Fold this sequence. Notes:
Strand content: 25-35%
Order of helices and strands: EHEEEHEEEHEHHE
Structural class: alpha/beta
Number of helices: 5
Radius of gyration: 18 Å
Amino acid sequence: MAADGAVRVTLPAELPAASIGKLAEQDAPEIGVAQIEIPEIEIQVFGRWPLAISARCYHARAYGRSKDGCLYACGEDPDGLPVETLDDEPFLVVNGVQTQSASYGCLLKELDLLKACGVSRFRLSPQTIGMIEVARLFRDRLDGRIDREEASVALRQLAGHTALSNGFFHGREGAQFV
C-alpha cells in the first residue's frame, strides 16, 4: 500500500495485539534495492466497533422505509438501533448500513502498549456521551497527565450503562472486557 501512496492505514478492530504489533513494526521492509516508507498505523481506541457493512439499510427497514427513501432513519437513533438476543441481552447495534458492537470498544488501558508497538494515531468514534470529556481523557492519558486507573474510572462513568469491550485486542471474544 505504501508503494502505491498510502500514508496511513486504519487496522480492523478484530485484530489482536500481536497482529497489530507485527503490522506496526518500525522497520520498513526492503523491496528490491529500495526501502519503502511504512504508512502510519491508526487504531480505533474508543466507540462502537464496526463489524459489518451491508448493501441494505436495516435501520431504514426498521422504520418501514426503503434504503432510497430512508429520510435518514439513522438520525433518529444517533447511537444506533439496539439489537437484542431472545433473552433481551444487548447483542449488536445497527446504524444505517453498518452493524456495530453493542458495547463501546475501549483501549484506554492499552494506549502505552499501542504506542510502544509503533501505533501513531488513535481514533475515537463519536457516541452520544460526553465526547469532549472522552477526548480529554484519552489526550491526558497519552500525555501522561492522568494514570491508567483514574482515566478508566472516569471513562466508565461517562459510558454509563453501556458496556466496555477490548476482547479482540486480547485475543478473546470481542464483547469481553479484559
